Amino acid sequence: MPDTPHPAAAIHPEARIGHVHLKVADLDRALAFWRDVIGLEVQQVMAGQAAFLSAGGYHHHIALNTWESAGGPPPPRGTTGLYHVALVYPDRPALAAALYRVLQAGVPLEGASDHGVSEAIYLRDPDGNGVELYRDRPRIEWPRDEAGRLRMTNRRFDLEALLAELPRAG
């Protein structure tokens, strides 16, 4: 057998990660977070058991459903499952606005990191699902070692400096 991988073994470089479906205990409570705090737009609600939300009118980026989870508890820590869902913002002002909405809603942050390639804020939705709000730096700015491999970091992310980039009213 040759040591060279078959060309079909790698995913196409333009492939994207599609939508995420989250099992939630209470659809109204989940909508209050994903719609009212995060700012996603409801595209459709199905029989009070599922909702499809997106940015910019796409059919859905996030779906919330109670099909197998109505009234259920969050999964316990230390078990397998989704670590977090990540929402990518186009720039620092957009990420600052997202952080502002989260803070105004009183949602506690779990952390914030500068990864060199991105700046990220971590929190949880009402069902305990991990949520990452982040923006990528331009690829030309990504830190690399002498061989050209990525050298991601885990530095402190200055949230006050981020909030200073909020657009000023009027």
TrEMBL record:
- Tell me the domain of life: Bacteria
Q: Tell me where in this chain the VOC domain is found.
A: 16-136
Give the signal sequence positions.
none
Q: Which Pfam families match?
A: Glyoxalase
Q: Which InterPro entries match?
A: Glyas_Bleomycin-R_OHBP_Dase, Glyas_Fos-R_dOase_dom, VOC_core
Q: Which PANTHER family match?
A: CATECHOL-2,3-DIOXYGENASE (PTHR43279)
Instruction: Name it.
Output: VOC family protein
